[in-house]
Amino acid sequence: MKIAAARTSRHESVWVIKTALKGVVIDAGGQSGFSQTQARLRALGVEQVTHVLQSHTHGDHCGGAYLWRAAWGKIVGPKAAAFPLIWLMPNAGRQAHRLYRGHWLREPESPVRGKISG
Questions:
Q1: Model confidence pLDDT, tens digit, residues 29-45
Q2: Strands 22-26 and 15-19
Q3: Rounded CA gap, 92 and 80, in Å?
Q4: What dihedral do alpha carbons 111, 96, 72, 46 form, nearest 10°?
Q5: Domains of the chain, with CATH numbers?
Q6: Count of C-beta atoms within a 10 Å radius of residue 52
Q7: 97-116: pLDDT as tens digits
Q8: Burial class for 94, CB neighbours closer than 10 Å (0-12, 13-18, 19+)
Q9: Most buried of 11, 46, 58, 103, CB within 10 angstroms?
């Protein structure tokens, strides 16, 4: 068994657990890197993906889930009630942006100063 990065950029989070010619993908990554990730998996010797495991529902981890579901059919992840179905649709990023407009967490323009006590 081998664990390898299958992501195609630093903005994607895709890993594969490979055994022989099959693989289990951890996180679907975003929509834009799907075909490159498929090529990366082939280069790693993965001929069949048996499952895609979703760690959580951030777009860079599950934005391409609908593409994996169409190609392989097996997505395993958070409970259905907690898993936003929006990430299983084409153009999920745009749809999420419209749906959650005004609810995004923004980084402060300047560094936060001070001490965090715990």
A1: 877 788 888 888 899 99
A2: antiparallel
A3: 17
A4: -20
A5: 2-93 (3.60.15.10)
A6: 27
A7: 665 555 555 555 555 555 55
A8: exposed
A9: 46
